[in-house]
Amino acid sequence: MGLLNRSKDDKGTHKFQMHERLMSFGDDSWIENESGDKVYKSDGKAMRMRKTFILEDHSGKNLAEIKERVLTVRDKMSIKLPDGRSATVHKKLIGIRDRYKVEMDGGEDLHAHGNIADHEYEIEKDGDTIATVSKKWFRVRDTYGIEILDGEDDVLLLAVTICIDALSDE
Questions:
Q1: Which InterPro entries has this protein been placed in (predicted)?
Q2: Residues 6+ apart with CB under 8 A from 5
Q3: Whole domain around residue 52: which residue ranges?
Q4: pLDDT digits over 41-65, tens only?
Q5: Strand pairing of 120-125 and 62-69?
Q6: pLDDT tens figures, 53-99
């Protein structure tokens, strides 16, 4: 996949480890960096009418609010960031491969494609891979990694990954 085969001269990346059960409705789970430090927490809100997750930093600061959009023709989730930016994630209905579109309000749209169910996919912007999701990096069951290109928004891309995981479980 895209970022795994980059040479040392290319831009660096940030790597994170997530657990499949992270997206469980009502559960809290930590997202770790490549050193094993707990850097983000996904707080799944159980007492809500729709799926809701809050992505927090290690001190509990709200970095993103992720909500299921109800009463839509196709399943969608919205992401709201504290700086006012927002995005909508939905599955594309065309083709047999899993494809998701991330519509950024006032920004460039993102596209995710690959084997979503097996956590082997890429997220692209303008045709360039900016993040890779893979289970192959870990021997631990129900664990997968996200490798994000330097200069990209880690919080946004982690939130997109949470949305895709939650939508693909439906």
A1: LOR (IPR007612), LOR_sf (IPR038595), Tubby-like_C (IPR025659)
A2: none
A3: 2-168
A4: 988 765 555 688 999 999 999 999 9
A5: unpaired
A6: 999 999 999 999 999 877 666 789 999 999 999 999 998 876 666 79
Q: Give me the number of domains the chain comprises.
A: 1
| Residue 40, Cβ density class (10 Å: 0-12 exposed, 13-18 middle, ≥19 buried) | buried
Q: Which DSSP symbol is given to 32?
A: E
- Give the per-residue pLDDT at 5: 47
Q: Could you give the dihedral angle defined by the CA atoms of residues 131, 136, 139 and 141, in that order, rounded to the nearest 10 degrees? A: 80
Q: What is the CATH number of the domain that holds 110?
A: 2.40.160.200
Judged against a pLDDT cut of 80, whether residue 170 lies above it is answered with no
What's the DSSP call for residue 70?
P
